[in-house]
Amino acid sequence: MAAAAAASAELVIGWCIFGLLLLAILAFCWIYVRKYQSQRESEVVSTITAIFSLAIALITSALLPVDIFLVSYMKNQNGTFKDWANANVSRQIEDTVLYGYYTLYSVILFCVFFWIPFVYFYYEEKDDDDTSKCTQIKTALKYTLGFAVICALLLLVGAFVPLNVPNNKNSTEWEKVKFLFEELGSSHGLAALSFSISSLTLIGMLAAITYTAYGMSALPLNLIKGTRSAAYERLENTEDIEEVEQHIQTIKSKSKDGRPLPARDKRALKQFEERLRTLKKRERHLEFIENSWWTKFCGALRPLKIVWGIFFILVALLFVISLFLSNLDKALHSAGIDSGFIIFGANLSNPLNMLLPLLQTVFPLDYILITIIIMYFIFTSMAGIRNIGIWFFWIRLYKIRRGRTRPQALLFLCMILLLIVLHTSYMIYSLAPQYVMYGSQNYLIETNVTSDNRKGNSTLFVPKRCDADAPEDQCTVTRTYLFLHKFWFFSAAYYFGNWAFLGVFLIGLIVSCCKGKKSVIEGVDEDSDISDDEPSVYSV
């Protein structure tokens, strides 16, 4: 009874910590979205949508260590189940986590395929001044219907893709269809939801390869290199203004006698006047930044930024080394592409795969590390998005600027971050597959021991760490793993995606090293929506 009471107390403490984490996630999302949204074009609905969608993705990721903790907590370190962890209790715990994933993943599907597209297209139509609200809603619903159809198709495909085949090869077509429906009913829709979420995770993998891999190198190197001096940039800008004014004066002098300017000179004059307006705008912002107390404060924090940059680049190298060793282990020792490159045991150890199971035994140290990993991916992804922008193939759609991001761009930003956070669960599995599958569970195996006192062998049960080769009744697989590896072809795509992630990181590292310091007002040249009356500090 005392052991059961202690176990219940620890579980309550764990759920309380999870609740506090939820509050922290909501506060972080609110601050994050408010930091980047435009002050002049902020909309309540788009702000709430962005905060809610990003929070749901982070809460789903926060459920990962809870899942791992619960399956690990049911067993003792000697490989035996705890007294209170009978079959019914284990099933109840597994079902609770499973229903939690059902709920959160369903909300994610609703956000991605209905709510975010509807709000986005609603505000796209709102840009037309002569459009009524009724017309905006109708048009937004029309475009959103296409996303809803895609979601329905994904659910249908996932529901009826046969994971098993009928044993009777001579079965009729009706028996095959009946088998599919029976399989769907036995899985309680897990396959359909898993297929849809895995499809989104695959898109998140592409976003992570594009933005996160580059941001992992760009963020630390930008912190280390810093920005250019505002005073030096202002001096250069003044010289450029004088040069442009000279060109304008030269062109205008050609028409002093009343002769009209040639078409070529008119075009050149217009270009020089546009350039002059931009340079004077830069002059005003540079003057504001040079005299700003925030610039002086950031200058005092320069050594701290260098320390953070070095820390971030070391963390990036740790992730890259761990990911490389994990992928190399799959390439050398996995069961092949048909199994999704599943490995039986860890043949090549990597730092994170060794560290996470150790931290998991002392709750909530693994929670803290998982939170740090997710936040690291968020910040590096944001750094990549800010440096690259949001593109559709070769067309640049939006730029992300602190305090100047339009509602539509903010929705795009949170959609990308949502998909990247979804992919984070698989990234953590790639870094520590044993931890994500079984946590710190052990199981008992028989070992024959030769005794010196007795003639013959004796049987001894010794604990062994759970892996993919362990008996199903001895080791409980996490619900997260079931969602991630329901379909082998997604796992195979993630495996090749990890190699692409490593390649983009190395390319980004070379590019970031070769690039010079960023301008202290980077983006003023391009942003036509920057108000001359509202200068802001652009330095990071």
TrEMBL record:
Topological category with respect to the lipid bilayer: Multi-pass membrane protein
Subcellular location: Lysosome membrane
GO biological process, one term: protein localization to lysosome
Molecular function GO labels: cobalamin binding
Keywords, comma-separated and alphabetical: Cobalamin, Cobalt, Developmental protein, Gastrulation, Lysosome, Membrane, Transmembrane, Transmembrane helix, Transport
Highest taxon above the source species: Eukaryota
GO cellular component: lysosomal membrane
Pfam families: LMBR1 (PF04791)
Family per similarity comment: Belongs to the LIMR family. LMBRD1 subfamily.
Subunit structure: Interacts with ABCD4; this interaction induces the translocation of ABCD4 from the endoplasmic reticulum to the lysosome. Interacts with ABCD4 and MMACHC; this interaction ensures the transport of cobalamin from the lysosome to the cytoplasm. Interacts with INSR, adapter protein complex 2 and clathrin heavy chain.
Protein's name according to its UniProt entry: Lysosomal cobalamin transport escort protein LMBD1
Source organism of the structure: Sapajus apella
